[in-house]
Amino acid sequence: MKGPEEPSPARRKTGRPLSFDRDAALEQAMLTFWRHGYETTSIVDLTTAMGVTAPSLYSAFGDKKRLFLEAARRYAGDLEAMAREFQGAPTAYDAAHAMLTRAAVAYTGNTTPKGCLLASATASGSAEACDVQGEVAGIRSAIAACLEARIKADVEKDTLPAATDAAALAGLVMAVAQGMSVLARDGASRSALLGIVAAALAAWPQTDVARSGSDRDDSARPSGNPNGP
Q1: Proportion of the chain above pLDDT 90, given as a percent
Q2: Distance of alpha carbon 141 from alpha carbon 3, whole angstroms
Q3: Interatomic CA distance for residues 108 and 55, integer angstroms
Q4: What is the pLDDT of residues 163-177, one digit of tens each?
């Protein structure tokens, strides 16, 4: 729902300060979209949660669509930093393990909505929201690409079998993450989601050298940042 025409941020008088904390307001908008979804969240819902007037919202963020996309990017985090984190992990397995563990923790937080904003906010929508859905899909694709690149690096180093399908393996991790979001919204506990992480990663491919050695010790692997995916 788009509100009345208001001056864009670019047309606001130079030096005119915002009358509210933009970062704090964006955080509340993110939580509201996360809880209710993109299309079912109204401008009234947003202004109430953000503590701003409708004209201030339009002036600071443009419109509901641009506000949502900024909130989605805030939720997803810095993708370049994520790529560096994946590349800096000891192995692609460690990167996937940390990502899924972090997701399981974030999806079951006590002070945030259940599940994943990227999975739930645009899970269903009208034709008018298809561009928003495309933007969110693009964020997911970028995350998968980061993981795929890390998997390919392991293949090149013989840490993973040469026949490993990097795209399919990255897709599996993304599918598990998105599926856990649905389960979390259905009420699944954190321990249940962590059990799913362990079960899914038990299928991670290994080289012949790894298979002939000791079993993989998940307890020694990093759990990742618990503050969200």
Answers
A1: 72
A2: 31
A3: 34
A4: 999 999 999 999 999
